[in-house]
Amino acid sequence: MASQALYSKWRPMAFEDVVGQEHVTYTLRSALASGRLGHAYLFSGPRGTGKTTMARLLAKAANCQYPDPAARPCNTCDHCLAVNEGRYLDLIEIDAASHTSVDDVRELRDRIAFAPNEGQYKVYIVDEVHRFSGAAFDALLKTIEEPPAHAIFVLATTEIHKVPQTILSRCQRFDFRRIPLHQIVERLAMILEYEGIMAEQAALELVARQATGSLRDAISLLDQLITGQDEVLTLELAQAILGTTTDQSVRDLTSAILMGDTGWGLDIINRALEEGSDPRQFARQMVDYLRLVMLVQTGGPELATTTITEDELVFVEQHAEQFPRSALLQTLRSFNEAANDQRTGWQPQLPLEIAFIESVDKLHAAPQPEPPPAPAQSSQRPARERREAPPAPDEQAGDSEPPPQPGSITTAQVQERWRSVLKTCRSVDKVVEALLNSGSIVGVEGNAIILQMPSDMLRDKIEHDQNRQIIESVLQQVYGLPLTVRARAGSSVSVQSGNQRSREIDDIVASDPLVSFMVNELGGSIKRIESNEE
Ligand SMILES: [Zn+2]
Questions:
Q1: What's 44's domain CATH number?
Q2: Rounded to the nearest whole angstrom, what is the distance from the C-alpha of residue 28 to the centroid of ligand 1?
Q3: Domain final residue, candidates 242, 266, 286
Q4: Same domain membership, residue 100 and residue 62
Q5: What CATH number is attached to the domain comprising 507?
């Protein structure tokens, strides 16, 4: 298989070549140098972190004929060469998954009794040892309780909790850790340099991140990505093949949740998918990222350094500061669900979108009970009001200005000077002006002007704190009253149909960058066109 090629080719030949796991190499090399090898080792840890590689190095070093034990394996003596070429008789590798019967283990025990053929030690590597049956474990236990002087057992497992305590207590145990991102990237870069292939650093980081600490997976992925020598492995190419989205999208979507900006978030998702990201993969990347945010929030930045670079850590730390703990956990759960959603419906992005909206709602939903249903004014779409009305008038008592009385301003009075409101807004913030322009005044309740907005997205934009503050200050300026706006969604007026009309609209959208932003980015619609008198 092509994906095995690079990995086999670049398998470490000496302890110095091993990436990560310094604690294991150090201890094993000391044991070798002092001639104090044990008879039973247990290597546990995630797949692809170098357990079998380390076991083979140990087997090779144990039988190496080089005079200085500290320099073993030498990779030049007969024994080393035989191991490297896979023809060394005293290295026996057993896959526990296919040797589960008692007979297998009994046969193994019988063979162990014989002295090594060539070297000083017979080394047995038992991979995935947790897959042994109970009887097989018993037989193995008997063997390692009284091992012959010439036998070394190296048991490897990804699931340490399935290995019986009786076995564990007889072994020297080493825990293999996921390999830090920067070490994987360095290794990939080195391999590519030797292979004469150019690659962008960001592409290598993406591959490394996908491999989640497994060097074997990283190298296999790399193998799938490189096709020809002349080609440069770009981030874009890596993303396209791996179906991943950019880190930027992942970070932005997290920011959109924190800001409660559903329009922006849905836009990020759409754009990523249009560019070829896989929605489940996107959800998975969100889970990875949010998990880092959680780790940094609870345990500090050092917990994240195995999986990200220094630059990325800055973003993670920011988000960790802003995200309330319980909302963060809920958000993680939502995206985890989307990542594991196996159904491939006709809307594959739906689970991702739901996870996003749910996260926004959970973070921004007011804790107060739902307000009573609004009077049946727009019957098909009930108005959703998530934010509370502004402070009650009596809270402002004592101010020099007269407090506004409920009903002190009428809808007609608001309408009368609305044009001034828009004009004043224009000088402050054009987007806010455009937002107000896309809504229509449907009434006044107390000191709140009720605006009907064409979409939920635009309603949320109006209600966004920053925008609302601008509007309120403008209203104060124009009407001399502390008024506020309350937005409702649902189009009360629909765009007139007809070719002439829609062409006119298209022209306006195309010619005005602000209108184009409103329509294309925010999902607004044009419902009234007025000629400008000036
Ligand atoms: Zn040697």
A1: 3.40.50.300
A2: 16
A3: 242
A4: yes
A5: 3.30.300.180
Asked if 25 and 168 sit in the same domain, the reply is yes
Q: Which two tokens stand for residue 492?
A: 């009360």
**Please, are residues 443 and 487 in contact by the beta-carbon 8 Å criterion?**
no
pLDDT tens digits along 83-102: 999 999 999 998 887 777 77
Answer whether residue 378 is part of any domain. no
> Quick check: helix, strand or coil at residue 52?
helix
* Nearest-angstrom CA–CA distance, 44 and 50: 10
- The answer to whether position 2 is within a domain reads no
Q: Residue 329 is inside which H or E element, if any?
A: helix 325-340
Domain-located, residue 508: yes
533 part of a folded domain: no
Question: Which residues have CB less than 5 Å away from ligand 1 (the ion)?
Answer: 64, 66, 73-74, 77, 80
What's the whole-model pTM score? 0.56
pLDDT given at position 306: 67
Q: Can you spell out the DSSP letters for 414-454?
A: HHHTHHHHHHHHHHH-HHHHHHHHHSEEEEEETTEEEEEES
Residues 417, 412: Cα–Cα separation, whole Å: 9
DSSP H/E element including 42 = strand 40-44
Q: Based on the domain organization, do 496 and 411 belong to the same domain?
A: yes
* Whether residue 208 is found in the same domain as residue 170: no
pLDDT in tens, 21-55: 999 999 999 999 999 999 999 999 988 899 999 99
Looking at the fold, whether 150 and 47 belong to one and the same domain comes out as: yes
For residue 30, how far is its CA from the centre of ligand 1 (angstroms)?
17
Domain count, the chain: 4
Three-state SS for 237-254 is HHHHHHCCCCHHHHHHHH
Q: What is the pLDDT of residues 346-392, one digit of tens each?
A: 677 888 999 999 999 988 875 544 444 444 444 333 333 333 333 33
Domain enclosing residue 434, as ranges: 406-521
The CA 82 to ligand 1 mean position distance, Å, reads 9
Strand partners, 215: none
Q: How far, in Å, is the centroid of ligand 1 from the Cα of 80?
A: 4
- Same domain flag for 47 and 193: no
Give the residue-averaged pLDDT of 161-186. Answer: 93
Do 493 and 463 share a structural domain?
yes
User: Does residue 158 sit in the same domain as residue 195?
Assistant: no
Residue 224 to residues 6, 123, 228, 359, 530: CA-CA distances in angstroms? 10, 34, 11, 35, 58
Ligand 1 centre distance from Cα of residue 65 (Å)? 5
Q: Reading across the β-sheet that carries 440-445, which strands appear in turn?
A: 440-445, 448-453, 484-489
Cis, bond preceding 73 (omega within 30 deg of 0) = yes
Contact (CB, 8 A) for 306 and 178: yes
